[in-house]
């Protein structure tokens, strides 16, 4: 049963972002190794409600999270949410609009980080 739930969690991330983030793999592995898998299950139940069932809808939720993470300077997590926003239909212009708002709350470092992430995530993959 536990393994089934973990597979569902992994599948949700893949559906959301196109890949399983390494941070999630590490979280699951550590909690398995320490017999604390209920922690992962509780966190993921909360994430299901506040992210996947959010009244803002998937695209806007991902844009908001992208902006929050850019403002905090969290490059890796911001990239994941930029990718998820794009997958949900966000345009480059919408991503840039979010980064412009991060400029107001967090200054040029946040703006520059956001521009770098947008550039990386909107370039064609090779």
State the main characteristics.
about 130 residues, mainly alpha, AhpD-like, about 80% helix, elongated
Overall description:
Pfam families: CMD. It comes from Acidithrix ferrooxidans. Residues 42-112 form the Carboxymuconolactone decarboxylase-like domain. This is Carboxymuconolactone decarboxylase family protein. This protein is mostly helical. Helices cover 81% and strands 0% of the residues. The chain folds into two domains: 2-52, no CATH class; 58-122, AhpD-like. The protein has helices at 2-17, 22-33, 37-52, 58-72, 75-87, 92-106, 108-122. It starts with a helix and ends with a helix.
Question: How is this fold's topology laid out?
Answer:
Elements: H1 2-17, H2 22-33, H3 37-52, H4 58-72, H5 75-87, H6 92-106, H7 108-122
